[in-house]
Amino acid sequence: MDPPNPHQAVGFSNKDKAYVIWSCQSRTSRYAELIKQALQAIEENKIFTLYSSSTAIRKALLERGWIEKIPPDRMNLSKLRNGPLRTRTEIYAELERYFLSNFVEKCQPNFIWLLKCQQFETALKDMMEAKECNTIINKIKKDAMWTSKQGLCSSMKRNYWFYIEDVAEVNGPRTYNSYDAGEIEGFVKDYKITACTSLLKWVLSMASNERPVFVKSGKISIKVLVFALNRCKEYLFRKQHKDIDHSLSTASPAHWNAFLKKYYRIIAKQDLFQEDKNNKLPTYLGYAKFLLREIHKYRPQLSCEGCHNIWIIKPAYCSRGKGIRMASKLGVITDLLNKANDKFVIQKYIEEPLLIHETKFDIRQYYLVTSTFPLVIWMYTDCYLKFSSQKYSLKNYHEAIHLTNNAVQRNYKNCKGRHAELPQNNMWDSEMYKQYLKKIGKRKLWERVIYPGMKKSIIGIMLSCQDSLTISKNRFELYGCDFILDKDYKPWLIEINSCPDMHNSTPITAKICPAVLADIIKVVVDYARDSKSSTGKFECIYHQPITIPRKASDMCVRGYSLPLDYFYRDNIEIKDSYDADTDKERDIKAMVHKLKGFYDPDILFQLDDDDSSSSQNSKKDDTINDHTGCDHNTGSENELSLAATVITEQLDEIIDRITSDNSFTLKSDKKMDANSTNSSKNHKHMVKRMQSVTDIKALLKSTRTTRFASLETLSIKQKFSFNGPQGKGSFDQFNPIKKMFEKLPKRTHQSKAKKFGNNNDLKEIQNEMFDATSKIISFINQKEKEYLHQFLE
């Protein structure tokens, strides 16, 4: 025969129902009130079911006009006949409760409070058949990622991805899962480097307290300290990625075993080092301080992990302190893990916690999650402290000293010599602790360090686990997390418990637990229906922002024009870059070097490297001028002056023809004075026009944007094609170039030829001018092709 199902719907028999109804009908006026109350609750969706004896939840809902639908397995008249109910008032109250439950037995409850052992699917079997379940339930479907020690360990390892400055930051001890071989290997490496840092901390601590460390009678070689220094240096190199290009020497397993044996002797048996004969101790101590300071950046727990290298081994799925062990030797820990059949987590023990009157304590903090997507977290502003019953000591690993769980401490009596200010029931509420902080001059630390630190840890760990959750409508859950404070009052997250114990085990829990449960109803019932309602002492510490998705058709790109200065580090003026003094710049190459101030040197390299420049100049002079921009020695002072003047005039004519109306027209150019006789102004004019022609890509862009205000009036009157004639300003359009010089007034040639004495000198200068001008036109032609090619693509 199958065993009875504890969740089987037994309920009242017909006889029991008849008795309950008759008992209420005998009181006619009260019976009518009960019927009216039940109908109103059905209409307003105020029916709840509790799978636990949570008096605070029941009381809070009854005060709001809700009706309890009692689970069938909990409806039993034996409580009335043989139970603790003695007075007639208590009996009638219980009969009315059964009557109302029987009246709404076919209605779906609108609020359900489950126990930890309650199977979620079993309890909601009837309701899950509906397409939409609007029932509020105190369980999130999947929460093992952070409520189990194993899941919390995994969550902490990826938490750095969810760091938000001043919002989300988790501080937790280093933890490893025993079921993963890679995790065990990581733990062994961590244990070894922790032994090195612990030794350095021990030596520095002894030296700062002026206690003997290096003595004649010492038995430990100073090489042990050097070994630890080298391993810490290698650890830093790996963290700083310096091992990528340089291989690091690693210690062999035999060396590590020898070091750990000496380390155990130093820490446990207080063995000392041999005397420092080479007087290197100051250097070693200074180097140790430096290494520890740098390592602390990568291992924040270094400030509170002590010198004994103690680790705590916890069963992955146990609670209330069951099965927890502590050990400081690597061999003991590995043997324990190898022999165990269950999964464990190995966590670095905080050896230097904050103590109150030489006694260890932790903080139990409650928080509430009312939504998973978006994530909404509420934190209870009140909490309580759990003390150990014994004085803190690292010489003894007994659970009464190190485990502050109430389930453990209630099994032990408080030690002798215990401070009078410590509570006999080993609990303080947060107000008592604040008074203590005020007494020792630390009253502001709660608001500035402790409470914000716990808040950031809770937000951070929930963000790191959010991806493992499903979207749960009308779901919420209360969690209890434990924190330990270090000597700087920074909270360290130890563990998180789902369905925390809310029983009144001590006067402190009898006060805070019912208040927490009553305030939960304020949040999930009152506040959910009216956002102006009170939430008690629950504070919303995080409400995840939501970005509304848009359809592709609704998307558009918006922007603004960037100023010219955005693309340059300095304000480049044309005058400073191009204003060539024709009396000093004697060669076209010098002018090209001036152009380099505005254009990218890679664009103008062809102009510099062309072998057809200035046949009368030596290669040496060309090389020097390419790098320095110095003057060329092309002849006498008069010859150079004449050449510069003629080149300037011809360039003006070339640029004028390039920027004719057949190609581009700039309104700004029409305003220029074409009849100006000043050579420097003519040269500026030439440069501006050259810029407008060669920077075709920028001009094309200006037809679509307002990036450059000076190019707003640009208009393209002719399409560019690579198959037909070249665009305006191309080399073909000015072929042959000598025709330009033929168009020059003869008077100019003749008057200037007299200064040279014969026509040969003039022809030579004209040839040089022709070569130089050909280069510029070739350059313009090439850049025009490049810009047009980019535009057409």
From TrEMBL:
SUPFAM superfamilies (alphabetical): Glutathione synthetase ATP-binding domain-like
Record keywords: ATP-binding, Cytoplasm, Ligase, Nucleotide-binding
Compartment(s) of residence: Cytoplasm
UniProt name for this protein: Tubulin glycylase 3A-like
Region described as Disordered: spans on this chain: 610-636, 669-688
Matches recorded under InterPro entries: TTL/TTLL_fam, TTLL_monoglycylase
UniProt entry tagged with the keyword ATP-binding: yes
Residue spans of biased composition, Basic and acidic residues class: 618-630
Domain of life: Eukaryota
Species in which this protein is naturally found: Loxostege sticticalis
Signal peptide: none
Pfam families attached to this UniProt entry: TTL
Gene3D superfamilies the UniProt entry points to: ATP-grasp fold, B domain
Keyword Magnesium: no
